[in-house]
């Protein structure tokens, strides 16, 4: 009796089972070439798509609220316990931890430096706050624009404060930094090369050291044209500084 594998595709037979005996039915005419479905997707591509979708889901999925709250409370209590007597901390980019102490010679220095000192304001429930600057601003349509002349119309003195979210602090090294003697906060930076932090504005209330928050006001800083001009000046300075560094290196080592 011919086996099923001995029959070519063009004369493939129907297979019928009768008890323990394998019987071959009459051949059915079929095309010589097995038809292909143009909509068929290979299994490897399906597997790759599933893996990519799972990775994207893990990236976009938010952690449970309970886990976030427990992390925030633990970070807040830890900072409150150790921050007493510390006037400032060192905020370091967690991905560029080895750049700590090195000068920032980026040509287009957008955002914050990979490390900077922050004067401690306090560890609050919403996040860790530090004093950034004292400036004069003019508020228009809910946006605060920085002004250089305190006597300009509408200028008011404000305290610029940064608020760092506790869940973005990846690690805290309470051992004194060899250069500054301050503890180091290793934090995550966003695509703007800035810490995941909020910028707040406060005004002096006239009552001791109490500061009054300016709710609903967004800090912009200088207008866009001035910011672009400053970036070009910063880029020119960075290029000149790199040139001087190369000259100093050649003078020192080449003799």
From TrEMBL:
Entry protein name: Uncharacterized protein
